[in-house]
Structure prediction request, 204 residues.
Amino acid sequence: MNPPADTLSALKSALREDLRRLFRGLEAGQREEWSLRIRERCLELPEWSDSQVVGLYHPRADEPDVWPLVERAWSAGKCVVLPTYDEVSATYQWCRIASFEDLVPGRFGIPEPRSRCDRVDAVRLDLAFVPGLGFSTDGGRLGRGQGFYDRLLKFFRGRSYGVAFDFQMLPQIPREGHDVELTGVITPSICRFVPSGVPQKNGY
Prediction:
């Protein structure tokens, strides 16, 4: 029998607070060094070479910095899409950016695509890199509690990788019905694939 929803919510909240304490102890030099290793692992993925449409994100100040991958993707002729907040639906949607001039400060102060940028359906993405507070080796992800990425990836059919520092890896994460399973997790020291992950490719 699965635990009640309120119990799962309480467990997740406790994990979030534990992880936030670890983030507060993160030094800038560590973040830069670990982020470099993460980017190297991302570029080594076979899916990176094969993908045409790549979903990335602009990191918060304490998250793994994958932002340099945007220019690497452009130089390889890939389509880069980022999450942008839609006020009408109160959800995030994928939008294509062709240059850094396509970015404006978003709802949480994080740069995101301008309203003029083309929307891209989630089913068209080949590959997505996803931030979060915590991850587990079986594809679980612990976000910040608002479900934005769960909805953003609901119809995604490509390969999705959590991007994290090693201290964000957890033995297990409580899951609810709406929680999305990832293909794998990339940290400075590992690239862990979920056994149930099945490679799929979509065109743009």
The chain has five helices and twelve strands.
